[in-house]
Amino acid sequence: MSIATPIMPIWAPDTDTTDTGTEADDDAKKYSIWTIGCQMNVAESSQIAAAFQHAGLREAKREEDADVIVLNSCVVRQAAEDKVRGKIGALQRLKRAKPGLKIALTGCLATKHEDELMRQYPVLDLVFEPGAIDELGRILPELDDDLVALPHYYLPEDTAPSVTAFVPIITGCNKVCSYCIVPYRRGKERSRPVAEIAAEVARIAEAGVREVTLLGQIVDRYGYDFKDGTDLATLLYAIHDTPGLDRIRFLTSHPAYMDERLLRAVAELPKACEHINLPVQSGDDEVLRRMRRNYAANDYRRQIGEIRAIMPDATIATDIIVGFCGETDAQFQNTLRLLEDVSCDVTHVAMYSPRKGTASARWEDDVPRDVKLARHQAVERLQERISTEHNDRLVGREMELLVDGQGHGRWRGRTRGNKLVFFDDTADRLGQMVHMRVTEATPWFLRGELTAVEGEPVSGVGN
Ligand code: SF4
Question: Phi/psi of residue 449, each to 5°?
Fold first, then answer.
């Protein structure tokens, strides 16, 4: 899993909640949620929003209008932690102007340091561990007597449905990758019961969600802690026939646990998308050993071969850390060779930076920054060429797209293989499953033209 993104390749931007309120809600107490980090945090922020809505609060148009602010923090990199601490500091002014404001902190910074953080930042009214949403019930009655303590609440309810949703299925991590802080902050692995996840998926699918992404630090370790043979494949089969659900994805896999049973389940189940996110981190065995990744570069090569043997059209994404302690030029060249050999569709690359509290933070961070930067650029250049080759091959192909929003004045969606596609259309296509012919490829996204839309005659396309 990535040092930069313990769950998923794309960092969630800092997000203040957007307005969904109406004039009738003006008297209601309001909340605002600020989120950084991985998809796990994004998913938990959605659950917090759902819990607030359930308790009668409404989303604030602006952070300044909120009666309660929740900061959902990330510490995977020092820069992320600095940003969270800066945000806490910046809220002091708002709290002075509005003494009734309640501020709560959760996420990875909050783990195991509640008392220390409360002492350090008197502006905070509450610090609670990730997932302990019930804790918010301690401060809500202070805002308004009528706001009763939150019930234990895991399933999003009463929230405006979006097309896609993240569903955490396993939290924590039992590995000890030498550069990673996550096991120290998120604790041991804990899988959620199949029935509980299936109920959540059924509920959000009924509310309009068509694609779910199952989340875990090592998602393919799902069920190991039950010790009864339950695994991620079991879960895929269990939720596959959920009415209204069209697609299932999962993030992030670990090369040591992705097995043939899982790959065969993905290949066999029509709703399981053939997109595999499998971070390798380095292509050099000695670096992998010091990273404590428990596999060798050739194991990874074999695994990619197995994925493609079972699913020839699978798209594959990986993560790389460049400039890990002691990484020589020759070792870095092994990483480039591996990337060339496995030819992933996407490579997310991060420059190593030590994280206090991890094993590697005790070792010398001896690769100079300009060398790290040059290696970062070399990976990006190589991947740009490989991605171009992959995407060029798609021009002229018909692909299925789930439209999930707009960007740059165009409709935007993802293929089953998670390729980003833009297209023009004057009709409202949000949430629709469309078919499209790819007309143009870049290394980062595709452009296409509509050829069919579910439930519409072909002549209706492109109006
Ligand atoms: S310790 Fe766990 S979360 Fe961190 S990189 Fe390794 S597998 Fe991923």
Answer: -125, 145
